[in-house]
Design a protein that fits this description.
Elements (H helix, E strand, L loop, with lengths): L1 H12 L4 H10 L4 H12 L2 H6 L2 H7 L7 H14 L15 H15 L9 H11 L3 H13 L20 H17 L1 H13 L16 H5 L9 H14 L1 H20 L16 E3 L5 E5 L7 H10 L4 H21 L1
Antiparallel strand pairs: 1-2
Length: about 325
Amino acid sequence: ETLRRVASARKDLSRVSPQRARFLLRRGVVVALVRGCLWERALVSDEEVKRIGVAQVTEMAKWGEDSEYELNYLRTIHADLARTFPHTKGFERKGRYLPRLEKVLRAYASQDKQIRYVQGMNSVAGVCCLSATDDAQAFRLTNALMRHPGYRHREVFGRGQGRDIGFPLACQLGWILDRLMEKYHPKLSVHLNKTLAMMNCPKGMFSGRNVGFMTLKWFLTLFASVVPPPVSLHIYDLFVADGHVAALRAAMLSIADVESQWLATPVGDTKVLQPKLWHHKADPDGCPSEDLRDTWTRDPWALVTAIRASPPSVEEFEALRSEYAQLQAMKKTAS
């Protein structure tokens, strides 16, 4: 009876419009068994669903063994499989999601000839594997998050050239996050910049040469590498609904959560540079524990509501994105 109801719900949801699917995702309470269907309605066209089935994904996933060039990527994929959500049921050694994850990553690498595979994609694809009903849907979701014009998350993983550090979209989001922190948490911004100055680092906790401190942890995997899947799935719900503005809102919620603690921390204390302490409680010695902060353990509706209530608005996000693009254009012209 339960399976019949799930099948009926999936069939009903497969008919809703993309706009309706996004609306339901923003509501914050998504039943796990139908999450993949809602994501697919929001992300993937009917033509794409018909075109890419299990047989097509299986064929694409044969990529990786025809040359040393491909084998190098395949070795990295195999190494990262064991690192993907190792404490989550189904991702443990010989877990049922690992073959699906490998198939999705190999299939995606066969299609994206510019990037192929970069560490961090395993977490994004892993979340899609958790949500999907089969291998084909897991691939379609991953491919859409990476390449859909409204998301283009693949640009987070872009490689740099020359002195460029790469990760162009992560750098953009980090720059925007610094501007948001200056506006909404100015005291914390000043405090953190003083710590950076003592370490001979430039201003900007989340951007420029400092992008590796926190930004990559948050934006490469959309928080999937810093909070467990049961939490990150709700962040992904909002990302599917609203795009990268949702990731920035989750980051701003993190900043608001630690503000009082970091302001009480002496300037120069490198605890602020430990990614895990931004989401986990500290043990008696001040080291990160395995317990998440209360902000991230509230019920799903409360968490989603808190993220959605955090800045920026869509208008503010677009304005800052335009400003960043202008600055990058000016730098390119100057060079």
